[in-house]
């Protein structure tokens, strides 16, 4: 086993663990191939099991022969381990470093994890494109499922099955693909049942500096418009950024070639900028010495809340075009794998009540993120404590979850899931025992044989025992479009993630429990009333007709 | 009474507007929307109006901008300039009452008789409150020295002082304190026998001393055997206190006062606070505010910094009392602004009683009203002096709100209670806050009775009385990130910014329904028990008969939905065949996601209901 070579010291006694808002624990530290374990070897005490993959970075400090390792995790937790003995400490530190930065995906924990529960419903089979297409077919016959990408040669980041307009043949799709960045030609993202309008997504067109055009691309997106109708193209970049992209072969749809479309530019930041923002934000949240002014100015400088506002605004705009203007929409940025997906998935949450259920939200993530080719492996390789130069890490998915949380805050009764569900998804996107978020595309996942070799996150989450934690007791299904406020006064810092380890939540948790109790008690009382009424009715019928008093 | 038709009301943050009729009555300015289906009404009490501004004439009419003290801002466009000017000048006259008789409190009549009115005033009994704290006791006594309000006219009649503080000491001390406000007891922490006392600054100048005043502090110190020293908290920044010395005022010199630990706290004065709120409101009122401008504006206004400073001071006080068992004497300059904030908030941290509805009323009555916080000046009720206006009491309410965010189960009341109190501090509808210290009870009504009568609206559904047992003393964190902008106060009338579904309202309804259901269960059990049933057929209330509508949760929800969604639903129904509804206040264009200029066939957005939950509409 190659892990053994990386573990220089597998076990140290007398290690002291410090965690904020929790008592310190003294015990034995063990390193395994995938976990850092600290156990006090006493009954009734919680053991710390930390996935190496969850470790973002570590720091070492020495005072005499006592070494200290500060472990900073991708879920933003920071813990401190006091390790007696300089050599042990150095060994542990270098082992952790090596184990938490394994290059090969197939060495990751999901390939070794064996579930202790019986998989009843296999999450890998839960959300297949064919099923989604059946739903679509029941509403419209304008679309077909194309196999043009079945060997991933037309577009490596797309899945093998894609929903496209019925009248466009595979040959045209190939031509349109060659005109779009990374081969990501326009495909259906969402069909709005209420008025038949659609949302499509793609990557930028490769117009370049000389204004190249592609008839098939034009035909493809025009095929989604009803006669005489016009549509909107939402470019997630500013016009300036889109102009610059031309120099590198990219670009945007020229009005002359797309006369039926109106282009709107928004200003969602590129992914590398987002990573800097996350680092700054977490730094500000972790510094307990900030004065009020310093805190606010650091929060502002991180730009995190601005990003949330911009993404949410763009998604609302897309939804507004579809629902209020009755127009179809095409969304793209540069690659079409980041900001594009934030916008299309959030717009669906606003428009489609099904996406606000647990199953529906899982399906949305599966459709709009995993199958749509968001490069999770690259984006989530490092989190807020990465100290190296960022390569392609970026909290694109976390920002999406943050936006969902903002909508959830404003419509607390409209979602079947609660905040814990979103936090759980954040954790598993960065480090997990499940294979769901491994790989960067459907093609990669197939190659890794994830569905055979690893367990799906959904197989675990959807078990009733687990699901209970994620249910929103306030949920009452409604079929309405929900328009969130995007005023800065309405958007809050997501404390559940960013202040999670910096505050005691005991009082808040207890209050939440009390709320749950009130809701459950209400259900119980209603059942009681109903059964008593039934009893009474029975008595009355046995007793013959009643005189009215 | 006059009315003007075809007046447009512009939305503050979007381009929407509604048309209606403007009525001017002796007490209110009323706008009634003419659209027969939604017909929203806005009632603005003249006393709530802080400023009226006539803007320059536009093509559609003459704009009139009205800013209210409860943070409402309305923008009317009146077709004829004449009318606009009439309204403008009438309002200018009406919003500056010149005598007490003109205040709404003297015309407000809630259809109660004199006895009920009288009972309203007797709800809060401060003597009983001191008794609850355990005063008088072997160390603290009631003094009648201020019986005629001669020693200090801004203090209440009944005052509590250490038993060793004789009359000459009191009178001597009062002569050495600004406005005669000598050290007196405001809260007694029975467990440690520690006292929270308050006063104004000493007239020490650069070197003056007063033996009686020194004795007075000595007496306070001696009354507490648990600690050899007392804390003297000067709530001002040191620089301000130093500057006061030049005017013959100042602070206690530790050399002259044995056994004191002197501490500056650094809360800014009323002028800084007024400016800060002004800046805050300016930023928050900006249309299409960017996140950057919002956060920078929040920082530059300094508002949350001031809130944190007050909270820090209160925590300092509470820690001194509980951890060290020491008595604390609090003062600022005159001892009626910062001192009131710190004493009241400190007591609230120390004593769970003040976190109940009744207890909170007592606290306000004690530390704010009886000790002479100048409500008339600070809230600009009468005879306005712009330099005296300051949101001191608002800050106190906000500090309490910040605490409710950290301790959701500690308070019997919800934020709507705080907001409603704020509303009435400015409304001059009740007698409680009128005047600077003199009470005008004879012909007015008490707010407390009114609020208690609508107690249901202000309850916190997750309040847990047992929380007080496990957390008798609140120990909030004062990390900067715990302080948030209080949107529901400063934007209470800007519905588009609020969460579209209120957890508070929802859970409150459920809790209410639980109580009713419990009753139904009881009643059903009685009638359906076989013995009972056979013995006689007791007359049963209508609701128990099978088939009678059971007010189930679903139905309650439905009713609520109808109330909430009704307006949009009806608006939408003829237009869209699907009968599509949207969640109240949740419409696409209002939120300004982006201007779809030249959009192809932009529909008119249906109007949104102004549903002022928790802010009961006033009636005259």
UniProtKB/TrEMBL annotation, chain A:
Chief site of localization: membrane
Give one Pfam family: Myotub-related
Membrane topology per the entry is: Peripheral membrane protein
Compartmental location = Cell projection, Ruffle membrane; Cytoplasm, Perinuclear region; Endoplasmic reticulum
Keywords from UniProt, A to Z, are: Acetylation, Cell membrane, Cell projection, Coiled coil, Cytoplasm, Endoplasmic reticulum, Membrane
Q: Which organism is it from?
A: Cyprinus carpio
Species classification: Eukaryota, Metazoa, Chordata, Craniata, Vertebrata
Which gene does this sequence derive from?
LOC109084310
Give the GO biological process terms: negative regulation of autophagy; phosphatidylinositol dephosphorylation
Q: Which GO molecular function annotations are given, in alphabetical order? A: protein phosphatase binding
State what protein this is by name: Myotubularin-related protein 9
The record's section on CDD domains has: PH-GRAM_MTMR9 (cd13211), PTP-MTMR9 (cd14536)
The UniProt entry's GO CC annotations, sorted and at most eight, read: cytosol; endoplasmic reticulum; perinuclear region of cytoplasm; ruffle membrane
Give the record's family classification: Belongs to the protein-tyrosine phosphatase family. Non-receptor class myotubularin subfamily.
From TrEMBL, chain B:
The answer to whether the entry has keyword Lipid metabolism is yes
Q: Where in the cell is it found?
A: Cytoplasm; Endomembrane system
Annotated Tyrosine specific protein phosphatases domain residues: 301-345
Q: How does the record say this protein sits in the membrane? A: Peripheral membrane protein
Locate the residues binding substrate.
269-270, 332-338
Note the Pfam families from the entry: Myotub-related, PH-GRAM_MTMR6-like
Main location (coarse class): cytoplasm
Q: What is this protein called?
A: Myotubularin related protein 6
User: Family per UniProt?
Assistant: Belongs to the protein-tyrosine phosphatase family. Non-receptor class myotubularin subfamily.
Q: Does the keyword 4Fe-4S apply?
A: no
Question: Which GO biological-process labels does this protein carry?
Answer: phosphatidylinositol dephosphorylation
Q: Name one GO cellular component term.
A: cytoplasm
**UniProt keywords, alphabetically:** Cytoplasm, Lipid metabolism
Query: Signal peptide position in this chain?
Result: none
**GO MF entries:** phosphatidylinositol-3,5-bisphosphate phosphatase activity; phosphatidylinositol-3-phosphate phosphatase activity
Q: Where is the Myotubularin phosphatase domain?
A: 120-490
Residues of the region (Disordered) are 559-601
Enzyme active site: 332
Instruction: Cite the InterPro entries for this sequence.
Output: Myotubularin (IPR030564), Myotubularin-like_Pase_dom (IPR010569), PH-GRAM_MTMR6-9 (IPR048994), PH-like_dom_sf (IPR011993), Prot-tyrosine_phosphatase-like (IPR029021), Tyr_Pase_AS (IPR016130), Tyr_Pase_cat (IPR003595), Tyr_Pase_dom (IPR000387)
SMART domains hit by this protein: PTPc_motif (SM00404)
């Amino acid at each position: 086993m190659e892990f053994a070579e990386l573990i220089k010291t597998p076990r140290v006694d007398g290690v002291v663990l410090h965690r904020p808002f929790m008592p310190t624990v003294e015990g034995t530290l063990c390193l395994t191939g995938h976990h850092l374990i600290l156990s006090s070897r006493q009954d009734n005490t919680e053991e710390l099991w930390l996935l190496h993959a969850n470790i973002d970075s570590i720091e070492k400090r020495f005072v005499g022969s006592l070494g200290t390792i500060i472990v900073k995790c991708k879920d933003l937790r920071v813990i401190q381990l006091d390790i007696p003995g300089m050599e042990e400490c150095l060994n542990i530190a270098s082992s952790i470093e090596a184990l938490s930065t394994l290059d090969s995906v197939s060495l990751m924990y999901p390939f070794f994890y064996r579930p202790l529960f019986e998989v009843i419903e296999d999450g890998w089979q839960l959300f297949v494109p064919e099923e989604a297409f059946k739903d679509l077919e029941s509403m419209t016959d304008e679309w077909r499922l194309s196999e043009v990408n079945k060997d991933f040669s037309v577009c490596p980041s797309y899945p093998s099955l894609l929903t496209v307009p019925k009248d466009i043949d595979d040959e045209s799709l190939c031509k349109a693909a060659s005109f779009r960045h990374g081969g990501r030609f326009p495909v259906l993202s969402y069909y709005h049942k209420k008025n038949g309008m659609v949302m499509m997504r793609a990557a930028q067109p490769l117009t370049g500096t000389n204004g190249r055009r592609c008839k098939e691309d034009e035909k493809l997106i025009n095929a989604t418009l009803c006669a005489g109708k016009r549509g909107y193209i939402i470019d997630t970049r500013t016009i300036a950024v889109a102009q610059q992209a031309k120099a590198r072969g990219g670009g945007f749809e020229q009005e002359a070639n797309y006369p039926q479309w109106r282009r709107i530019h928004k200003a969602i930041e590129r992914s590398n900028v987002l990573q800097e923002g996350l680092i700054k934000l977490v730094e500000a949240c972790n510094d307990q010495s900030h004065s009020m002014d310093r805190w606010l100015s650091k929060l502002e400088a991180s730009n995190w809340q601005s990003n949330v506002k911009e993404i949410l605004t763009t998604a609302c705009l897309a939804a507004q075009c579809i629902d209020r203007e009755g127009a179809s929409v095409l969304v793209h940025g540069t690659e079409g794998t980041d900001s594009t997906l934030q916008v299309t998935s959030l717009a669906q949450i606003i428009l489609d009540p099904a996406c606000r259920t647990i199953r529906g939200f899982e399906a949305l993530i599966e459709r709009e993120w995993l199958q749509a080719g968001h490069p999770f492996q690259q984006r989530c390789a490092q989190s807020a404590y990465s100290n190296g130069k960022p390569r392609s890490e970026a909290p694109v998915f976390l920002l999406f979850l943050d936006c969902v949380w903002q909508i959830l805050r404003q419509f607390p009764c409209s979602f079947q899931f609660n905040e814990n569900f979103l936090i759980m998804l954040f954790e598993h996107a960065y480090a997990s025992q499940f294979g769901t978020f491994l790989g960067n595309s459907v093609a990669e996942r197939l190659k890794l044989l994830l569905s055979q070799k690893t367990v799906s996150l959904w197989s675990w989450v959807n078990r009733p025992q687990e699901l209970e934690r994620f249910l929103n007791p306030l949920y009452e299904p409604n079929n309405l479009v929900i328009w969130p406020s995007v005023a800065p006064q309405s958007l809050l810092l997501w404390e559940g993630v960013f202040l999670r380890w910096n505050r005691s939540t005991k009082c808040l948790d207890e209050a939440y429990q009390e709320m749950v109790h009130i809701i459950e008690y209400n259900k119980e009382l209603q059942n009681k009333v109903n059964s008593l009424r039934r009893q009474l009715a029975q008595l009355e019928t046995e007793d013959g007709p009643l005189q009215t008093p | 009474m006059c009315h003007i038709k075809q007046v447009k009301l512009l939305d503050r943050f979007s381009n929407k507007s509604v048309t209606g009729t403007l009525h001017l009555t002796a007490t209110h300015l009323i706008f009634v929307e003419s659209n027969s289906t939604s017909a929203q009404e806005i009632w603005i009490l003249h006393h709530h109006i802080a400023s009226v501004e006539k803007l320059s004439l536009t093509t559609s009419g003459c704009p009139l901008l009205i800013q209210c003290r409860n943070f409402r801002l309305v923008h009317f466009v009146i077709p004829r300039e004449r009318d606009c000017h009439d309204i403008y000048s009438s309002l200018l006259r009406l919003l500056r009452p010149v005598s007490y008789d003109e205040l709404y409190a003297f015309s407000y009549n809630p259809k109660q008789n004199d006895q009920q009115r009288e009972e309203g005033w007797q709800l809060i009994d401060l003597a009983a409150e001191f008794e609850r704290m355990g005063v008088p006791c072997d160390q603290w006594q009631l003094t009648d020295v201020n019986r005629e309000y001669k020693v200090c006219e801004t203090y209440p009649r009944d005052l509590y002082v250490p038993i060793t503080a004789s009359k000459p000491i009191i009178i001597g001390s009062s002569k050495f304190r600004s406005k005669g406000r000598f050290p007196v007891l405001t809260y007694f922490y029975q467990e440690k026998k520690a006292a929270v006392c308050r006063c104004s600054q000493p007239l020490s100048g650069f070197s003056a001393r007063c033996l009686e005043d020194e004795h007075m502090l000595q007496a306070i110190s001696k009354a507490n055997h648990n600690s050899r020293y007392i804390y003297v908290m000067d709530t001002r920044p040191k620089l301000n206190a130093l500057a006061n010395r030049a005017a013959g005022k100042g602070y206690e010199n530790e050399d002259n006062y044995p056994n004191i630990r002197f501490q500056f706290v650094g809360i800014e004065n009323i002028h800084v606070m007024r400016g800060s709120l002004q800046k805050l409101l300016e930023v928050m009122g900006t249309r299409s505010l960017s996140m950057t401008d919002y956060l920078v504006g929040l920082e530059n206004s300094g508002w949350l910094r001031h809130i944190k400073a007050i909270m820090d001071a209160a925590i300092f006080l509470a820690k001194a009392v509980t951890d060290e068992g020491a008595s604390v004497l609090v003062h600022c300059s005159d001892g009626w602004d910062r001192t009131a904030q710190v004493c009241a908030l400190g007591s609230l941290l120390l004593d769970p009683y003040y976190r109940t509805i009744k207890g909170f009323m007592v606290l306000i009555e004690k530390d704010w009203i009886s000790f002479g916080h100048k409500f008339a000046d600070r809230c600009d009720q009468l005879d306005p002096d712009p330099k005296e206006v300051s949101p001191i009491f608002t800050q106190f309410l906000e500090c309490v709100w910040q605490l409710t965010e950290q301790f959701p189960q500690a308070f019997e009341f919800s934020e709507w209670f705080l907001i409603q109190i704020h509303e009435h501090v400015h409304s001059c509808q009740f007698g409680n806050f009128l005047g600077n210290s003199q009470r005008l009870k004879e012909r007015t009504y008490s707010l407390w009775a009114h609020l208690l009568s609508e107690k249901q609206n202000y309850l916190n559904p997750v309040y847990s009385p047992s929380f007080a047992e496990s957390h008798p003393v609140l120990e909030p964190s004062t990390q900067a990130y715990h302080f948030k902008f209080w949107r529901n106060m400063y934007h209470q009338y800007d519905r588009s910014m609020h969460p579209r579904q209120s957890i508070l309202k929802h859970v409150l309804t459920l809790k209410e329904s639980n109580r009713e259901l419990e009753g139904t269960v009881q009643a059903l059990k009685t009638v359906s028990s076989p013995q009972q049933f056979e013995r006689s057929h007791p007359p049963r209330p209508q609701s128990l008969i099978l088939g009678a509508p059971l007010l189930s949760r679903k139905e309650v929800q439905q009713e609520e939905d109808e109330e909430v969604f009704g307006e949009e639903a009806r608006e939408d129904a003829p237009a869209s065949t699907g009968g599509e509804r949207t969640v109240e206040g949740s419409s696409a264009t209002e939120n300004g996601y982006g201007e779809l200029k030249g959009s192809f066939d932009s529909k008119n957005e249906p109007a949104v209901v102004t549903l002022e939950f928790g802010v009961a509409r006033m009636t005259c």
